[in-house]
């Protein structure tokens, strides 16, 4: 009897230790975004991995803006960049964004706080396919402030986003 009780207690201890090691729920679908670097919550070794369902569970924002890559304004939907960072308890001064096509850009953390930058997963109400800048696209609300209509912010708008490193 003592041996059985000890085995049950040992098994429960292992479960508690494993579940507390990673605070974010694990991605159950295909991982489409990985956050690494200065993050407080993880669900994978030294990383926070998100599938589309996890991104869709965050509060969603929608805005319409004209981009330099399109002839007509586009409606974008996704969580605010700052909410995504908060979900992983991220900190730092710079976000290094990397895309599937190997494009890389540095985004000051202040941009995520100062502007309503979103990580769009929908364009005009539809999921964004990889061939059309998806599945994720960092988009600034270019039409909301004249200062955002500048090359600096266009270059920070990474499409085909696959990872963010917080430094």
Written overview of the protein:
- With 167 residues, this protein is an alpha+beta fold.
- The protein has a single domain (24-166), classed as Oxidoreductase, molybdopterin-binding domain (Sulfite Oxidase, Chain A, domain 2).
- The chain is built from five helices and eleven strands; from the N terminus they run H-E-E-H-E-E-H-E-E-H-E-E-E-E-H-E.
- It has helices at residues 2-21, 52-57, 81-87, 109-114, 151-156, and strands spanning 31-37, 47-51, 60-65, 74-79, 94-99, 104-108, 118-120, 122-123, 126-127, 137-139, 161-166.
- The strands form three sheets. It has a five-stranded mixed β-sheet with strand order 2-1-11-5-6.
- Strand 5 and strand 6 form a beta hairpin.
- The radius of gyration is 19 Å and the shape is globular.
- The relative contact order is 0.19.
- Mean pLDDT is 90; it is low at 1-20.
């Amino acid at each position: 009897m003592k041996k059985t009780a000890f085995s049950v207690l040992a098994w429960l201890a292992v479960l508690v230790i494993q579940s507390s090691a990673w605070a974010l729920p694990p991605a159950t679908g295909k991982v489409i975004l990985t956050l690494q670097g200065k993050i407080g919550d993880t669900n994978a070794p030294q990383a926070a991995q998100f599938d589309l369902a996890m991104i869709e569970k965050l509060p969603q924002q929608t805005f319409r803006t004209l981009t330099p890559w399109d002839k007509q304004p586009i409606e974008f939907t996704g969580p605010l960049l700052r909410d995504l960072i908060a979900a992983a308890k991220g900190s730092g001064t710079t976000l290094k964004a990397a895309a599937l096509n190997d494009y890389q850009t540095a985004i000051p953390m202040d941009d995520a706080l100062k502007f309503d930058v979103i990580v769009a997963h929908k364009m005009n109400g539809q999921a964004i396919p990889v061939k059309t800048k998806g599945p994720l696209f960092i988009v600034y609300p270019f039409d909301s402030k004249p200062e955002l209509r500048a090359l600096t912010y266009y270059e920070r708008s990474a499409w085909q986003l696959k990872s963010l490193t917080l430094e």
